[in-house]
């Protein structure tokens, strides 16, 4: 079945990431633990479906509390008409303003998500974060980015800007499956792979904090006994850092 072929394609990509991206993922998790241990935050930015990934590690059970997505209404998929989000993702000069308003500061970590790595908005965000003294982690596809010209005036792609680059090994165009009689591939892989990478970073960051005798600030499910009480207590402890309250 074609269902099996998609599962096989996705599994193969995940194995590539697991094999080839251990070093940058470890470096990213260490940077994240450093930032949290010093009283800092983890910021995440993406456009469109990459913005959906930034939500994947925000305000969820088993996740780090000190994660703050940077949302721009113009690049979220509830914007209407949704086709305008494509134009906003390509615009220069838009995301540095979002960065300035975010509260991010030197010593924090900024994770920028862009599979194609070529659009101006995420590149601008990475540049703004780097100039602000943050450690910039890029989650992108080198194969995709290197196959097309940058849409940023600097000529740089996201992986050229970041301090740490995690390659999601996604094919140019993202979709993984070729069906007979159809010229366009189907079956994107970037969301599933990106989610696994981000959650792996959360797990490793948490383990790194425990190794330092730090108490990791983790959300508990509000749907199990004690969850509400735990979350209220931990959120109160970090209230001075959290802009999402």
Characterise this structure.
This protein is an alpha/beta fold. It has a single domain, classed as Glucose-6-phosphate isomerase like protein, domain 1 (Rossmann fold, 3-Layer(aba) Sandwich). Helix content is 45%, strand content 12%. A hairpin with an 8-residue loop joins strand 6 and strand 7. The longest helix has 22 residues, at 190-211. The mean pLDDT is 97.
Features:
single chain, 245 residues, alpha/beta, Rossmann fold, five-stranded parallel sheet, two-stranded antiparallel sheet, 12% strand
Calculate Rg over CA atoms.
18 Å
Q: How many extended strands?
A: 7
Principal-axis shape equals globular
Question: Strand portion, in percent?
Answer: 5-15%
Low-confidence stretches: none
CATH superfamily: Glucose-6-phosphate isomerase like protein, domain 1
Could you name the CATH topology? Rossmann fold
Task: Return the average pLDDT rounded to an integer.
Answer: 97
Our measurement of the CA-to-CA distance between the termini, rounded to an integer number of angstroms, reads 46 Å
Number of domains: 1
**Helix and strand sequence:** HHEHEHHEHEHHEEEHH
Tell me roughly what share of residues is in helical segments.
40-55%
Pairing-aware structural class of the strands and helices? alpha/beta
Query: Based on the structure given, which CATH architecture is correct?
Result: 3-Layer(aba) Sandwich
CATH top-level class: Alpha Beta
Order of strands, widest sheet: 2-1-3-4-5
Largest sheet: 5 strands, parallel
